[in-house]
Amino acid sequence: VQLQESGGGSVQAGGSLRLSCAASIFTATPYYMAWFRQAPGKEHEGVATFEGDGGAVYADSVKGRFTVSRDNAKNTMYLQMNNLKPEDTAMYYCAAKITLPCIITSPDFRGQGTQVTVSS
Predict the structure, then answer these.
(1) Strand locations in 14-55, DSSP E?
(2) Are strands 66-71 and 3-6 parallel, antiparallel or unpaired?
(3) Within the chain, what is the greatest distance between any pair of CA atoms?
(4) 65 Cβ contact partners less than 8 Å away, ≥ 6 residues apart
(5) Which residues of 13-22 are buried (b: 16+ CB within 10 A; e: fewer)?
(6) Residue of 78, 77, 101, 108 lying closest to 18 (CA atoms)
(7) Which of 9, 42, 83, 100 has minimal CB crowding within 10 Å?
């Protein structure tokens, strides 16, 4: 099982980026999927998590600005990030787990991450 993030980069505040997470597990096993981030010196922060009913839960800090989606045909999950702020600067990771609890802190699988840097 592999997860591979892409789409990170450097943008100015107010800009947008779309992250992708290519996975090899969508059709084989019904994993829960999530995005989380980690800034230097800070703990992991859950950004968006797909829950059992197909809906998504977002961190308060990104509500209204970030949108998570998935394309099962392409085995890919996306994170559309709009109106980016300097505090969004972090390494972004996708995670997968067969059960939902602790998907951020203890995923079954996670990618290598993609860096997002937002300048003011």
Answers:
(1) 17-23, 32-38, 45-50
(2) unpaired
(3) 42
(4) 81, 82, 83, 84
(5) eeeebebbbb
(6) 78
(7) 42
CA distance 23 to 33: 10
Q: What is the pLDDT of residue 25?
A: 62
Tokens of 24: 């090899």
Q: Residues 103, 104, 109, 113: is their CA dihedral positive or negative?
A: positive
Q: What are the pLDDT tens digits along the chain (120 aa)?
A: 789 999 999 999 999 999 999 988 655 567 889 999 999 999 999 999 987 677 899 999 999 999 999 888 888 999 999 999 999 999 999 999 988 889 998 999 999 999 999 999
Q: Return the pLDDT at 89.
A: 98
Dig out the tokens for 46 from the structure.
């859950």
With the CA atoms of 73, 64, 38 and 12 taken in that order, what torsion angle do they form, in degrees rounded to the nearest 10? Answer: 100
CB atoms closer than 10 angstroms to residue 113:
17
